[in-house]
Amino acid sequence: HDCCETVKVALCASREGHPVLVVAEESFQFVQDEAYDAAQFLATCAGNQQALNFTRFLDRSRPPAADVDFLDEKVALAFRHLKLPAEWNVLGADQSLAENIPRETLMHFAVRLGLLRLTWFLLQQPGGRGALSIHNNEGATPVSLALERGYQKLHQLLTEEGAREPESWSTLSHTVHSGDYSVKHHRGLGVYLLTAEA
């Protein structure tokens, strides 16, 4: 969800030939958390070398694996719900930069920390695949970083042609937006959610 607001959720039941029945209703408040802040920061610093170099301090503190997995899931999910501009690109706004100019990218950031789900998300975005061949100032590409750090699954994701999305809650659903409405299909449960802005 990309907005701090109160929402009303209605649980409905329907049977063929019968009207839709509202079983229960409840309101709850979306709040802005660190994952959402991180996703917003990362989205705005795509291509900004000063900001991307600043993110490298996270690499020095090396959080425990469980924290990395939690961070990966939360930030990737927050990224999925950001309303990115149509022209947004993993490599930033300046597409005139040649591929052979060494620079830090969002893909380097995600791979350096071992963020599997965020890496997958970035691969699906404009500039995602192109970022794989860009060297940073140390001469490393995202692919070589994954190999150097022993991130087997991540390296597979970056190099295998038909690599599939990492398992996570977010893989269970598919959202279709149309104006003020969106429909989400939760494949695992066989449930459709209709959301309407009011």
CATH topology of the largest domain: Serine Threonine Protein Phosphatase 5, Tetratricopeptide repeat
Mean pLDDT: 82
Q: Spans with pLDDT under 50 lasting ≥5 residues?
A: none
Helix-strand topology string: EEHHHHHHHHEEE
> Would you identify the CATH architecture of the largest domain?
Alpha Horseshoe
Instruction: Give the overall silhouette.
Output: elongated
Question: What share of the residues does DSSP label as strand, in percent?
Answer: 15-25%
Distance between the termini: 15 Å
Total strand segments: 5
Provide the gyration radius in Å.
Answer: 19 Å
Task: Work out the count of structural domains.
Answer: 2
SSE class: alpha+beta
Number of helices: 8
Sequence of strands across the biggest β-sheet = 3-4-5
CATH class of the largest domain: Mainly Alpha
Percentage of helical residues? 25-40%
